[in-house]
Every structure is written in C-alpha cells, then in structure tokens.
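Fold description:
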Amino acid sequence: MSEPTGTQARRQAIALRLLVASALLGAIGGAGLTLLKEIGLTPPASFMGYALLAVAPFMIVASVIYWRNIDEAAREAHKFAWFWGGSGSILLAAPLAMLVGDRRLTALAGEHSPSEWFAIGVFSLLVFQLTAYVLVWAAWWLRQR
C-alpha cells in the first residue's frame, strides 16, 4: 500500500488531530470533574450533556474523514467488530437491566435517583459495547495475519 499524499494525507492529519484533541478534552474534562468533586463542588447535572453536544460534531467529522481514507480490509474489520462485538455485547449487558431496583445492585452501586440509574445504564452499555468492539476488532486483525 502506498503512502497517502496530497489531499488524503491532509484529511488524515486533520482527523488524527481531531481525535487526539477530543481525547485530551475528555481527559481534561474528567480530571476537572474529579477535582471539583474532591473540593466539594458539584457541576449541574446537564453539564455532561452540553459537553457531549459540543464535542459530538468534531467526532462525527473525524469519523467521516477516517472512514473515507481507510481501505476495504479496515472497513470490514470495523463492520465485523461492531456487529459481533458491539451488538453481541448487548446480550451480555441485558441481565444487568433485570437487576434495576434489586437490593443487590443497590448494594453494589449505592442509592441513586431514577435519572442517575438511567445514566449509569446508558454509559454502562456503552462501556460494554466499546470493550467488546475493541476485543473483536483486535481478534479480527490477529486472525487475518
């Protein structure tokens, strides 16, 4: 495979910068929230929602640029990983939904309001999906070697 040149190289560089900037912004935001909690300040509940809305357009642009610049094998790896890892992991996370309101889950995670349980559920599912996606994606590439 040849090295990217011209427009393609510029687009890949922009996408990489956007991804790195998003990761740094997330790390700084997470560290900032942790520091605020440590000193006893609690940001408004909607803060994370607004932060995600601000970052989402950049992530979408970076994803589209990345997708347009990868080869067919990389595309197949991503599709395979999302179908089997991302979708399949929902089956692994589904039993946890049956524990909502159960005292075992409350003992494990503590008392929370219904909106907090919803947020915990959504982000837990995302973690399950992304973890399984990465594992299946890596396995796909290892199998192709």
Observations:
- The CA atoms of residues 44 and 72 lie 44 Å apart.
- The chain has two domains: 1-69, 71-145.
- The mean pLDDT is 82.
- Residues 6-38 form the longest helix (33 residues).
